[in-house]
Model the fold of this input.
Amino acid sequence: MKELLLGLRLLSGSGRGNRARFSLMVLGGAIGVCCLAVVLAIPGILAAQDDRRAGREPDCVADDRELCTSGDRAALELTRRDPYGSRPLTRVFLARGTTPVGPPPGLRDFPAPGDVHVSPRLHEVLRQEPGLSQLLPGKERARIEAPGLARPDELYAYIGVEREELEGTGSPVTHFGAERAWSPTVESSALDIVRFTLAAVVLLPLGVFLAVCARLSAAARARRLAALRLLGLSTKGVKRVNATESVVAAFLGAVLGLGVYGLVDVVLSRTGLPGFTWYPGDGSLSGTTALVCLAGCPTLAWIVGQAGVRRVARNPLEVRRSAVAKQPRAWGLMPLVPGLGIVAGYCLAGATGHPPRDTGLSSILMPLAVVLVGTGLVLTLPFLSQVLARRIARSTQSVSLGLAMRRNELEPGGALRVATGLVLLVFVASLVQGVLIELDQVTRNTAHVQSYDIALRHVTSGEERAFGKVPGVRGHAVTASSWTDMAAEDPPSIGVVVATCGQLRAMVQGLDHCVDGRPAQLVNPQESVWAASKPGAEFPFHLADDQGEKRVMTVRVPQQELRFHDDGANSPFSSGDVLLPPSFLPPGFQLEGATLTLVSSSDPETVRSVLDGFGGVAPTVAVQPYGFNVDALEQVAIVKTLLAVGMVLGLIIGVAAYLVAAADRAVERRPQVTALALLGARPRTLRSVQVAQVVLPLAVGLVLAVVLGKMAESSYLVTGGGAIFWDGNGVPLLVASAVGAVGLAALGSLPIVGRQVDPELIRRD
Done:
């Protein structure tokens, strides 16, 4: 207890400089804890949104089984999710039954026929684009409240309709609420990407930053503790005195950081981030998060303090001003070698065309490799800096460079303590670039057209004609598939396309000479023809009319080929399909299981306009845009936003670590700078020495960061299963970032040497 009180007295009465250093430790800890709280709060925000999604899921669970299977007792619901740009617009059609059903979350009453309840954001969109109201048949009655929305900017609507409109398409519902959401905010695989990236971008530099804050003025503190040890204080007492200052600073920094996070959460929840918003309560700190911050930061400070005071407690004379600092060893290579081995192994597997298939093992090895490489990069820099400084000092003829290299040779960790945050920032920037490349592969639309599929089972002939006349639609055709054995696992079948030559020419590119009224086999040279689609083969197709009469029509694969040159991956038709003129179908009959395929330009504005037009023709019809997953686009937008948040936090941590360490180093170097000034060194020479001390080892670290970062990025792309393993587009950006970091370090390392020299700084020397 006496040692703790002594530590507090030393903390409060050791001069203005020590109090300034203590305040700097508290401020640095607050920045780090605020960033840590942001990272830890993200899963809670996503979980809160998923809980509200699950709370509004329609379900049918009742003791009376007939209530959920037949009859008109249960209410009916039909959910449609349409793309509005890159965001989903969810429409829930509800029809009442004879059995009362409670309203969905966020509504006061169950919607009556003709009533429309919209989210606040959708209400604003409808005011800006009145044409969108054709997707919402009825009159707006009320707004959906927060319990019924996952996020404040969600586009959501409940639409009351007559029961006849949902007969055959709607599902019975007795209540709203399920154990888990059918469509989570972020899928588990995407959430793993977020965790992996945030751990690399934020947590790894954060550990270094908090360690730097806990070790401010390490030399002066070590000499003060050595004096206490020589005065008779025990080894444990010395450790307790040091722990008191470090732990108190870390704890106060943690409390201040949590307070700052609370303000940041309130402000950002009101304004939101691009593509991602949340309610203020979603980001509130949980007890676990607060405990991790309040206990983890002081614990880390205590561990760092114990490691730094061990040498002082064992031999206090080792920290005297004339003592030679302990030289770094090559043991820092221990974590770097295995991490680099994992990364190099994945790069070799990608280069030889054998990417790993075991994603479970890769999800463990890849984060482990990043942590090992990042840690090894930091621990190896002092040793490499010393080797480089020794060789340059022996060969250079420059006084400034010689002084700088001799100082780095004797104290290799001093300059790198300033530059470590910047080195890690450049290293993790490569990883983020790899994640963005992988996400770009998922969301990139390389097709020149966008196709849409609409099942004709619930579409009238008038609606079918109206779909083809929607502005933006370039062409349309009816497609269907045949089968010969329903019990077979993989029955031989072919596809047919019912269209005229004009319709077909508007939907595909490079169509050869087409003759109306003549069937032909469509052949795309860019893809192989179906194995079953051989000339002369016959396949049955089932037909039905509006009165329920059914027929079977046999289609023979014709000898005539009709070639078209379309991208096989994005074409609305497959090579081997049979083109049938519309006149081949009996009047009034339609192919069973037929699909209306429509084509438009792939321009995002055109796609949205076409989808809005489809909703105006038949609001409850399901439209499937080929290769256009609006839920995936929304999740990718959220993931990119979270990655941007991580990069901003990483930048804050890296710059803060540099500023804190640079300020601390400037204070520690004042006696040496003053001594050199008294010996006649000019200010220009001193500035050159200071710049060289930081810039040269930093340049070595940044070169390693760029090289190792690109290797880690490539290995991540190999494990991601994408088509791109190597990407050089981001190299100029990384090099520019490295040059900028060097320039920042050079400006910040300039010593403050005025005209007046204070001899008090070196009096004790």
